[in-house]
Amino acid sequence: MTAAEDEYICINCCHPSSSLFLKYSDNGIRLTPCSNCGKAVDEYIEYDTVLIIIDLMLQYIEAYRHFLMNTNNRVTFLLFRTM
């Protein structure tokens, strides 16, 4: 894989990944497993924003990796605007 294809990183081992989830139908998604560690690339995409903020305040490194690497800038901007 090239760097252009790898838009995301695994929050557990920092291995690059091309997707966070696979969409099977309108209601069904499955989290993409990491090819390096086997865990979900980013389990925080299923979490509510309040839980992510709590994990950020508790300084969980996985929450920071999700927030800085696997979210788009609009979400990041909106979060800082509300603080």
Features:
83 residues; alpha+beta; two-stranded antiparallel sheet; 4 strands; globular; membrane; transmembrane; endoplasmic reticulum
Overall tally of domains: 1
Query: How many helical elements?
Result: 3
Spatial shape: globular
Strand % is: 5-15%
- Using DSSP, what is the number of strands? 4
Cα-based radius of gyration, to the nearest Å = 13 Å
Order of helices and strands: EEEEHHH
Structural class comes to alpha+beta
Mean pLDDT: 84
Q: Going across the major beta sheet, what is the strand order?
A: 1-2
Q: Main β-sheet: number of strands, strand sense, barrel status?
A: 2 strands, antiparallel
> How far is the N terminus from the C terminus?
38 Å
InterPro entries: Arv1
Protein name: Protein ARV
Family: Belongs to the ARV1 family.
Subcellular location: Endoplasmic reticulum membrane
Description:
With 83 residues, the chain is an alpha+beta fold. The protein has one domain. It has three helices and four strands, in the order E-E-E-E-H-H-H. It has helices spanning 49-57, 61-69, 73-82, and strands at residues 8-9, 16-17, 21-23, 29-31. The chain has a two-stranded antiparallel sheet with strand order 1-2. The protein has a two-stranded antiparallel sheet with strand order 3-4.
